[in-house]
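TICKET #2291
ISSUE: user wants both folds in one file
ATTACHMENT 1:
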Amino acid sequence: MLAGAGALVPGLGGLTAARAPAKKLGKEILERAKLPRPVPTDIKKPPGRQTSLDAEGGCCSLASRAADDIGSLALRNITHSGDAVLGHFPGYINKANARGASHFDIRDAWNSLSDAERWLVNTHFLDTVADRGDRVLLSLPKTIIRAESYLAKEVQYLTSEKGYVWINQWALKPGG
């Protein structure tokens, strides 16, 4: 049974279920980037202020809070349409907005991430879309996907790791 959005998640330092995926993503980004993550034990939550706490109850580093924010940013364009649009930047965003479909866009935060961090945040979005069972629409036909592009990697990830199959040259669906 899933916890409600406001329910506290055990082991995540008082985070609610709504923030837990972003918190987990933040930890993964830090681990992959091998950034130091000090956990001072002498810092207490200031009265009347909201702070981000790690699983041990200490204050998180600036890098961790930034990673949490990027994880949340990756999911800010999730809709309830049942469709997600992928494509080469920036064309897919216009198609997604016109259809009311989900899409990935972390804006300028993209420029501050390494390639590994970009892929991690991107797969966080793709995992969310796949877990929901959304249909994936492309902003261009599959025959003109640029090799070695993020779109090519996204399609490969969805078909090989998430069980998506092609419906036609413009769309994929979950399952076989």
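ATTACHMENT 2:
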Amino acid sequence: MKFTANRKTIFEALSNASKGAALKAMIPILANALFEANAETGRIMITCTDLQQRVNVFFDAEVAFEGKAAIPVNKLLKMLKNLKGADVTFDTDDKNNTTVTCGTTTAVLFGLPPTEFPEAREIAPETLFSIDVKILKDLIKHGAYAFDPNDSRSHLKGALFDLQGNDIAVVSTDGKRLAKATHTFTEPFAEAKQYIVPPFALAFLQGLTGDKVSITFSEKQMFCMAGDISYSSTLVQGNYPAYQRLIPEKCFYSLKINAETLLAKMQTLSVVSDDNPYISMTLDNEKIDFKSESISNGIITDSMNITPGAEQFENPMTIFFNPAFISSALSACGGTGDFYFSFNSEVMPARFDFGNGVIGIVVPIKRKGAATK
């Protein structure tokens, strides 16, 4: 294999591909990037994989000889970053050694046989759709923050992509909170399907650029194509819980609250709540009183006026929340503008409506003596 291409182009392509490489490769070939040169198309494909995810990146080059080479990805990245020339030539011999030439620098990197590199898995598509990259990234940002990556329940270690009718919903939960973001397409899906996307795949999707991405789901895999990048990932197996049961459809109480104001108060109250992870919110028809207290750290109190639009509370009502859960919901949705905070009692799940199909659910902390409605 021999080709020449722009150094910055190669570095950018390898940087994107390396997101799929094994960080601590127990199998030596997984620490390598597979280069494949095609003389007919004048294109190079770089592939990295850790066996759970696989990234392919394509770029243009002047291809002298077709072929394949497995080159240590981290060493090559460091070298390309520091080289000063405009173009780089790669020349691989029959012993899997690649000579890299750029300006006055010549380096020989010892690789492995490309035949050892894992083959791509076949995918039997069940669902295929195309979506704006920005819309997808917003769905993940607003709907995928509420899972716990350390949860012992493997089916909750990721975000659910729930495809029903014309809607795609990205949902996450750890049982104590829930996030859901929905986008509506003009055309319906052929059938309702649910897929659990793992954290590393969500992170890769969040890093996509460009305008459109096509996504294909099979029973156990996800495949994406965006511009010169293709990506595949295993899916989390298991049955996702019936999350709709946690979402209150109708709420007796509803307050319009400014997100920026509430987020600032949550962050302030959290200063002393590290060893006692809850705060109290006492609501009446005019204001909310907050209190955070800790035996070892101190006490913080605060308040904010509210405009419920009607006299809703016959008597003040106190609810206990984990402030970190409220902060994460507000932060994921930008922490600005107004939203609706709705609930039915001191112990039932509270609903945060941010508009545009984005909601958050936080389950109050039950304290001894808490009343129910």
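RESOLUTION: both attachments delivered.
EXTRA DETAIL ON ATTACHMENT 2: The two ends are 73 Å apart (CA to CA).
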